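Might I ask for a little of your time on a matter of protein folding? The record follows directly beneath this note:
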Amino acid sequence: MSDPHPLEEEVYDMSGARLALTLCVTKAREGSEEDLDALEYMFQQLKFESIMKRDPTAEQFQEELEKFQQAIDTWEGPVSCAFVALMAHGEEGLLEGEDGKMVKLENLFEVLNNKNCQALRAKPKVYIIQACRGEQKDPGETVGEDEMVMITQTIPTYTDILHIYSTVEGHISYRHEQNGSCFIQTLVDVLTNRKGPILELLTEVTRRMAEAELVQGGKVRKVNPEIQSTLRKRLYLQ
């Protein structure tokens, strides 16, 4: 008996508006302008209406997200998805504003969830976080050669969200002073030049970053992104 709901049909409708917000602290973050340029190019290529704000304070991180949510909920016509890029110094669960104060990531994430942003209810919300999540440095390791059915008319509050962190929990995130961050540059290259569902593309981003060797203080370091997803369908940007 064939599956009445084949996987390929379970895709997000991307025919409506695509909106993006980038909040980036450039102060004491050399290379961040290159990352902003790369993201701007990516959003143009993927047909997003993009807003960029430089050097927000901790309070402004929250305020700009709330303004973005209000703009989405009052948008003329349907909205298909939203991207939010957050770039700053940070610690696990925290981002540092231009003023040196901290804002909680969970407070920023809550603004666009299914409860608080009606226009994005059941629609994909993608967060790109380029920030340290601790102080640990990864020198790398040597590798050897050799269904349950539920029928319901509601959805959970926190579905349809994708968090793309530049590094795993507890670790440093690297940024080159001239070239920008390996994470943003690789992410933009893959999302603009490859086609396929976003989770498959992010696997390619992780593969490329795992192969890259970053030198910091004369020592080779490894870094890989971390992807957390509650997407319910396949998300195609191309």
Notes: The longest strand covers residues 79-87. The domain at 16-137+154-229 is CATH 3.40.50.1460 (Rossmann fold).
